[in-house]
Amino acid sequence: MSERTDIKRAHILAGAREVFLKKGFRSVTMKDIADAAGISRGGLYLYYRSTEEIFLDVLKQEESEEDTGFEERLSSTRNAKEMLALVLAEQKKELLAEGDLTEASYELAFSGSESGRAALTERFEKAVEVMKYLLRRGIRSGEFRRTDPEETARQIMLIIEGLRIGTRTMQVTEEMIDEQLRRIMQQLLSED
Amino acid sequence: MSERTDIKRAHILAGAREVFLKKGFRSVTMKDIADAAGISRGGLYLYYRSTEEIFLDVLKQEESEEDTGFEERLSSTRNAKEMLALVLAEQKKELLAEGDLTEASYELAFSGSESGRAALTERFEKAVEVMKYLLRRGIRSGEFRRTDPEETARQIMLIIEGLRIGTRTMQVTEEMIDEQLRRIMQQLLSED
Amino acid sequence: MSERTDIKRAHILAGAREVFLKKGFRSVTMKDIADAAGISRGGLYLYYRSTEEIFLDVLKQEESEEDTGFEERLSSTRNAKEMLALVLAEQKKELLAEGDLTEASYELAFSGSESGRAALTERFEKAVEVMKYLLRRGIRSGEFRRTDPEETARQIMLIIEGLRIGTRTMQVTEEMIDEQLRRIMQQLLSED
Amino acid sequence: MSERTDIKRAHILAGAREVFLKKGFRSVTMKDIADAAGISRGGLYLYYRSTEEIFLDVLKQEESEEDTGFEERLSSTRNAKEMLALVLAEQKKELLAEGDLTEASYELAFSGSESGRAALTERFEKAVEVMKYLLRRGIRSGEFRRTDPEETARQIMLIIEGLRIGTRTMQVTEEMIDEQLRRIMQQLLSED
DNA sequence: TATGAATGAGTCTTCATTCAT
DNA sequence: AATGAATGAAGACTCATTCAT
What does DSSP assign to residue D62? Predict the structure, then answer.
């Protein structure tokens, strides 16, 4: 019963994900999702009551399926500098990824959804936490220069957030991303 | 005729601006704008074919009406450090402003509009140019430490862009903005 | 403009009336009325926002078109007894009329509409007033026996109301109506 | 099996009754009843094919559960006048009762259901019979003035029917009910 | 018996767009 | 130029009814 429901939901979410990727959030209709999932309109309502509900579930699922390989690689690395390089590379991958839900997430937040804002905030703060951890470690080991880890972590993530929105709404190029990520690394390392 | 048309268009844009401020871009309808402008639906179509066309015109008008007082104050300042402080204060004001077209602009870009992307890019690059100019000046005068003006200017504007999207989609507070802007200043001044 | 609107509304009401006669109130849809009026769904919404609004307008129109011939005949009658006979005959006609909005009116009131209740109440009280007037006149002239005009008028109209609902929901026959109306007359005349 | 079925049906009817009380007849859905009875939609169809079928069964059950206490009190009364007072008091209670199926019954009849009409007719005629019996008895004993029992009984019940629909669809007050019931009594007693 | 998933039809409502005036 | 009436196409949502299990 519950299992059947879960399977069905997963199926709906898979279809919905494609729709959100292609159309963002605001212009997606329940019909779009029903069609993508290959079920009837009425059927969809048995599982979800709105596109927002569906989208938040897509995000949740996304999160739980996050690249575990990445975390393994991260934890197997001894060196703070290398860890940072890994994290930044991962961020670059995300920034350039075609299929991601950034636009839809922003649109959801724009639409006034508190849950949407909360999801984005949580995502951001989690990233800040990871970055803070790396910075503390690197500072302790003498790999990074002494700075306020909290503020610096936040600054770095803001730059990346700026790049994220930039790649979606402006002509931000891969070169620009590389340049900025390199610069972040430099600033942490520079002894001057 | 042309003058008449211009007056009418200005009238439409004034109404439309309010609508875009309140509702973003995607959920705005031609009816919304016709109502806000106090004209008939049919009448609106005599001047504009779509909400995108109207929104782009709103942006264009916005640009041409930009805060000239600010530019005056800027040009009357001798000191690069003070100029930067002015610019950052202006940015802060923008970041916190309730009524701005950021969300609508982003939504327009998300909707795939090339013109929308172009408008945002131009705006960003113009800001980078101003920042670059300031940095060069401050470096030359010895007020700022030596850094690559291009890259640094871009980094600063990316942080601000990150803050901009953050205030719209996350729980980014005024304190966080202050902290980051102060940090930008510090990093330019620090001699270490 | 206003005239055009009035003509259109009258046209809609004419179609709507048929629908309400046939289907009562609750099961009538905006589509039913649009179809009956020969206009599009969207078009109907330009004039009315709900079936309730339409129905109340049908009632209002009904009222303003009331049988003026009847009132003339009434006012040309000198004799209270004859006037009463006229009124009762009119009521009988109404009771047996195929095409009346009684059922729809009741359904509207059942649906919780305050305006519906108000319309029915007003209609009833108006009839009571007329009846009271007749009774007073007949009592004064010695044609009717002395009774409390208010209470008696109300009693008579309640009997008629009972007959009205009875003809719609039970097997109340014309004979039964005749018998009761005759009895009302008798009770007013009887000297015992 | 048959017993099981009966229990189940009773359970469904109990839930359905609440729904009809609250929503009348026309706007009640099979889903409403299934939910109220705590069974599945499919399950409900095993016992009933439509809301009409269910409602008629609710009425039938209602009838068989009628206030037997009242009948006892009635039969233990020697005096026709007192009996009538009892009956009228009972009617008043019914008129003012919040939870009764009057509205739903009328709606059923309006919807064209022959069974609905038949049920209402039977109920009315039964009441007329009781009233007739009382009148005959009172006339015989000299308590009531001489009138045609059939016509008078019917008239009384029509007044009550008028009050019934009046309390549901107009602003008929308790005072008005009292006044009318008192008047009925008076008219039977008066010797003039 | 009983469930509840599923479908498809039907209703409400809002708009973009056109067109007669 | 301008109006606003009109249409038809969506989109949201709810149910009656069926069916596999």
Answer: H
Residues A153 and A131 sit within 8 Å (Cβ to Cβ)? yes
What would the CATH number be for the domain defined by D2-63? Answer: 1.10.357.10
Compute how many other C-beta atoms are within 10 angstroms of the C-beta atom of residue B117: 18
Q: Do chains A and B touch (3 or more CB pairs under 8 A)?
A: yes
On whether the CB atoms of residues A181 and A92 are closer than 8 A, the answer is: yes
Mean pLDDT value across residues B154-164: 97
Report chain C residues whose CB lies below 8 A from the CB of D183. Answer: 151, 155
A53-82 residues touching B, CB cutoff 8 A: none
Q: Residue C134: what pLDDT?
A: 95
Per-residue pLDDT at C23 exceeds 80: yes
User: In this complex, which of A103, A107, A162 lies closest to B158 when CB atoms are compared?
Assistant: A162
Which residues of chain C neighbour D161 with C-beta distances below 8 Å?
Answer: 161-162, 165-166
Name which of A102, A115, A165, A172 to mutate to probe chain B: the one with the most chain B Cβ atoms within 10 A of its Cβ.
A165
- Element holding C92 (H helix, E strand): helix C80-96
DSSP string, D144-185: S----HHHHHHHHHHHHHHHHHHHHHS---HHHHHHHHHHHH
Q: For residue C46, which nucleotide's C1' is closest to its Cα?
A: F5
* Cβ–Cβ pairs < 8 A, chains C and D: 110
CB D58 within 8 A of CB D13: yes
Task: Closest CB to C121: pick one of D154, D157, D170.
Answer: D170
pTM (predicted TM-score): 0.93
Superfamily (CATH) of domain A66-189: Tetracycline Repressor, domain 2 (1.10.357.10)
Q: What amino acid is encoded at B78 in this protein? A: R
Tokens of B178: 């202050």
Domain B67-189: which topology?
A: Tetracycline Repressor; domain 2 (1.10.357)
Q: Check if the beta carbon of residue C138 is closer than 8 Å to that of residue C78.
A: no
Residue in B125, B126, B148, B170 to test binding to A, most A beta-carbons within 10 Å: B170
pLDDT band at A191 (very low <50, low <70, confident <90, very high): low
Name the percent of chain A lying above pLDDT 70. 97
Over the stretch A19-49, which tens digit does the pLDDT of each residue have? 999 999 999 999 999 999 999 999 999 999 9
DSSP annotation of D99 reads: S
Contact C111, C26 (CB under 8 A): yes
Please state the φ and ψ torsions of residue D98, each to the nearest 5 degrees.
Answer: -65, -55
The vertex-B165 CA angle with B161 and B171, nearest 5°, equals 125
D18 shares contact with chain C (CB less than 8 Å) = no
Q: Half-sphere exposure of A59 toward its Cβ, with a 13 Å CA cutoff?
A: 24
Q: What is the CA radius of gyration of chain D?
A: 19
Cα C163 to Cα C177: distance, rounded to the nearest angstrom: 7
CATH class as words, domain C2-62: mainly alpha
Q: Do chains A and D touch (3 or more CB pairs under 8 A)?
A: no
CATH 1.10.357.10 domain span(s) along chain D: 2-63, 67-189
Confidence band for B1, pLDDT divided at 50, 70 and 90: low
Taking Cα atoms as reference points, which of A154, A158, A186, A173 lies closest to residue B147? A186
- Could you tell me where the DSSP H helices lie in A141-189? 149-169, 174-189
- What are the start and end residues of each CATH 1.10.357.10 domain in chain C? 66-189
pLDDT score recorded for residue C191 = 62
Mean pLDDT of D19-34: 97
Question: Could you give the CA distance from residue A42 to residue A40 in angstroms, rounded to a whole number?
Answer: 5
Does B7 reach chain A within 8 Å, measured CB to CB? no
Chain C residue nearest residue D124, CA to CA: C170
In angstroms, rounded to a whole number, what is the distance separating the alpha carbons of residues D163 and D92?
Answer: 9
DSSP C77: -
- Residue D46 predicted with pLDDT over 80: yes
